[in-house]
Amino acid sequence: MLSRVLRIGQRQEGLPPGPPTVPILGNAHIFPKAYAHYQFTEWARIYGDVYSLTLGSGVVIVLTSMEAIRELMDRRSASTADRPANYMSILITGGLNMTRARYSDTWRALRKAAHWVLTQQKCNKHLSIQCAESTQLMYDLLQTPERAWWHVRRYSNSVVLSVFYGKRAPRYETKETAAFFEITRLVNYLNEPGAHPPVDQIPLLRYVPERWAPWKLACRQLRRMQRDLYFDLLSESEARVQNGESGEITTFMDEIIRKSGELKVDREMQAFLGGNVIEGGSDTTSSFLHSFVLLLAAFPEAQHKAQEEMDRVVGPDRMPAPEDYRKLIYLQALIQEVHRFRPVAPLALPHASLSDEIYKGHIIPKGSTIYINVWGVYHDPELYDRPDEFIPERFLESEFGTKPGTDTSDFKPDLLFGAGRRVCPGIHLAQNTLMVNSMNLIWGFDFAPTVNKLTGEIEPLDLWAYHKGVVTDPRPFVCSIKPRTPQHASTIRRCFQEAIPSFAPYEERLSAEDKAWLVESRKDLF
C-alpha cells in the first residue's frame, strides 16, 4: 500500500522527459505560480519541444514546437479536442463556458452556434460599426490621451456588445462594460496556470472550507456576476425579437434566438454563449491594442516606418479604409511582430487528450492536460534571430519571420487563435478589429515615452509589466500621445462627427445616465 502511494507523482515509463519529480507531489512543488510561460520555456530548452510534468496522479504535456502542435493539435484533433477537468468552471457556469467546456454534445452545439454567426461574411456586415467605434477611439485619444488604456478597453467591449446585442458602450463606465471587465479580471485570476491549488488533480482539495480557499469565494462571486449580466442582456434581445424591434440592425444574438431550436441551444446556453464571446473578444482585442501602443512608443523607428508607408498610401485628408490594408505591407509586418513579441495568450487554453497517443516514441496518455507554449515557440532562437528583440522587418524577409532556411511547412499563421477543433470562433471579428485600429492609430498619432518634467529625462517604458492571467495585458502605462499634425486632428474630429448618426440604432436602449453623458460629450461638435 505504501509503495503504491509513494509511486504517485512519479513520471510513468514512456512519458516524455521532464523535471525530476518527488513522491506524491510529482512536479506540483515547482509548478510556476504566475507567468508560467517563462518557466515552461526554460524547461523546453532543457527537456525538448515535448516534455511532461506530473501533478499528483495527473500528467501535463507541454508543446513548444510548430511541428508538435501541428501534429497533435491539428492532425490528431479528434484525440486532443477536450479540455481538462475544470472544477472551478463547473462551479461557475455548470459547464456552459464554451472555451472551457469538455468535449461533449453541449460543447458541439455551442461551437456550432458560434461558428454559424461568426463567419467571415457575417462579420464583414458589421465592419461599419467597427469603423465607427474606431473613430470614437481616435476622438477619445485626441480629447483625453491620458486615459488611453481605458479608451481601448471601452472600444473593444463596445464593438462586441454592438454586434452581439445591438447595444454599444459609449464610455468605459457604461454598466455592462464595467461589469464585463470585472468578470474578465476574475476569470483570468481563476484560470491562470499554477495560481491556485490543483483541485482537479487532487480532488480532496475541493473539500477545503471556503475561509481557507479564497478561490471558492471568487467562484461564487463570479457566478453571480455572470448570471446577472448575461441573462439581463439576453432578456433584452428576446424582447426585441419577440416585439419585432430589431429595426436597422440584426445582431448575432437575434439570429441565435430565432434559430435556437435548429441549433439546439437552450436559454442557459444562449446566455453563456453570448457572454463568453464578449468576455473573450473584449479582453484579447484590448490586450493586443495595448501592446501595439506600448511598442510603438518604445520603438520609434518602427513607428516612423509605418507612418511613412501610411502617408504614401492614405495621406492626411482622410482616415484609412479597410481596402487600404492590403497595400500597407510594413504595417502588416508590424502587427505580426507585435503578435510574436507579446502574444496575448502565451499558453493559450489547455487541451486534454481523449485517448492515448504515441508521438516520437513517447506516450501522451488519455486524460493528459496539454499546453501549447505559444511564447516558447515565438521566442525560440532556433527559429528567430534575436527573438527577444522587436524587429518587424523579419516578417518582410520571410512569411513567418523566421531565419533563412527554416522549414516552415508546419507553421500556423493563426496559432494565436488556438489550434485544432478549439480555434477561436471570433477570429474574423478580431482580425477586422485589429486591422481597422492598427491603421487608424498609425495614421493619426505619434506615440512616445513621456519626459520627466523635473529632470528632462525620458521615462523608460517597462515592456515586461504585464498582468498575470491566461490573457496577458500590459498594466496601465503612461506615454505621450499627440496628433501627428493639426490636419490629422481636424480630420479625426470631422470623421467622428460624421460617424455619430451610425451609432443611433445602438444607443436606443442605453441608460438615462449614458444618454445624458452622450449629450454633454458631443455638445462641442455641433
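the 2nd protein, sequnce then structure:
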Amino acid sequence: MPRRTDELPQNDHDPAGPGTRPPTAADTSAAGPTADPASGSASGGSDGRARPAPGPTPDGRSWQAVRHLLVRLHFYAGVLVAPFLLVAALTGLAYTLTPQLDQLVYGDRLTVGQTDGAPRPLAEQIAAARAAHPEGVLASVTTPPGPEDTTRVVLSVPELGDKQRTVFVDPYTAEVRGELTTWSGSTPLTTWLDDLHRNLHLGDTGRLYSEVAASWLWVAVAGGLVLWLGRSRGRRAKSARGVLFPDRTARGVRRTRGRHAAAGVWLALGLLFLSATGLTWSNHAGERFGRLLDAVNGNAPALDTALPGAKPPAGDHAGHAGHGGSAGATADADPAAFDVALAAARQAGLGGTVVVTPPAEAGTAWVVAQDDNVWPVHYDRVAVDATDGEITSRTRWADHPALNKLSKLGVQGHMGVLFGVVNQIVLALIAIGLTAVIVWGYRMWWQRRPTRGERRALAGRAPERGGWRRLPLPVLVLGVPAVAALGWALPVLGVTLAGFLVVDAVTGAVLRRRTA
C-alpha cells in the first residue's frame, strides 16, 4: 500500500531524509545499509562493504527508475483506491455470511420441521402454492436442495419488475410455509447485501466503485509483491522467512511495513483471484470479457428448445428458454406437466437440485436445468416435450468451453458457494486480512509525516515524481502499448490512471510555480 521515497533504495530500512520522522532509538539500533533515493547507490551490502547499484546510462536512464515508478504507482493506488477496497472488503465480508443469515432470518420458510415419508408430486405442491397466492403466473419450480429444504414455486408478478414472488412449500405435506420477494432466487437479505457489495444501492453509477476496486486491486497486489521481494539484497530478504513474516525486532514504520507486506504476500493469490473474477461481471471490463467469449466461441452451448415439427417461435427466443421463465405467458402451465418434465430429466440422469421451467412460447419445450453450485458442480440441462416426456435436446457441463467453465467456477468461488463453508471461511479471512493491510498502509502514511518544526504535516509525502522520464527505452517501448492495451481491456483502470496522471501533473506544475 502507500510508500514513500525512502523505500526506493534496495534495502530493508528507512533512511532519514526530507519528509521523514526523526529516527527512534529502536530504529537506530536496527539500522543497516542505506541508500540514496535519487541515485540508487547503496552504502552497504550484506557483508558490510559498499556495493554500488547499477548506475544510470549517459542519458540519465536507469533500471532503478522502474522501482521509483512502481513505488509511486503503489503509493497512489494505496492512498486513493484503498477506500474503495476497504468498502469492498467489508461489504464482501458481510455477503460471505448470507447462507447462515438466511437460515437465521428465514429458516421457518427455507426448511421443514419433519422429513417423514416421500415427497408429494410437484402438481400437488404447486396447487397449494397457487391456492395461497393466485397472483401472477408460474415462472419455475425449484426442487429442494436437501431433505430438510422446501420446494420453491416461483411466480412472475408484473408489479415486482425483475423480481419474483417465491412461495415455499413443504414437499412432504404440500403445506405452504411462507413467501418472499426474491431476485434470481436470492432472499431479500441476500439481495440487499449483494447490492450493497456491488453498487452501494446506487444502481449502475454505484457499480463504478466496485469496478474501481477490482481494477486496481491486482495492480496494488502485483506492485507490492515486486517491491517487497526486491526491497533488499540482504540475507534476511532472500530467505523465505524474511518474505513471509515481518521482522519482530523492527520498530516504528519498519514494523508496520513488515506486517503490511507480509500479510499482502499471504493474501496475494486470493486477492488476485477476487480481482479477476470480479472484473468478469463488472459493467465495463465485463463487457470486454463478453466480447472475448464471443470472439473465441467461449460461451455456454445453447439449448435448442424448439419442438420437432413445431413452428419456430417469433423473435429470438429459441435456444434461450429457461432464463426468462414464462414471463410472457398469461396463464399457468399445467401443474401435472411439471412432474412429467421432472421425471424425464431424472431418467436422463439429472440429479440433485433442478429448476423446472415451462415453455416461454407455444412450440417450445420445457427446460430442466441442474442448479448444483457446490463442487463438483452439475449444470446439465435438458429440453423436454411434456406431452410424451421425450428429451428433445441436451447440453452437458462437460461440453462447456474451458473459458466458460473457468468463468462460471470463478464466479461461484467469488460468491463463497463453490466449496461450501470452507469457501466462506477463506473469503472471510481474505476480507479481514485485506482490511488489516489497508489499515497498516494508512498507518505507514501517518508515521512518515514530517514532524519537525514548520514541516509538521497530516500525512507522509508522495514519492518523487518524474521517474518515468528515466525509464530505460525498452521499458518505454514495450510499456506504453501494454498500458494502452490494459486501458482498453479495463476501461475504469485506464480512465482513473489517466486521471491520476493529470492530477499529478497539475500538482507538480503548481508546486514548481510556488518554488520558482
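Residues 1-53, 316-327, 453-460 have pLDDT under 50 and may be disordered. The longest helix spans residues 64-96.
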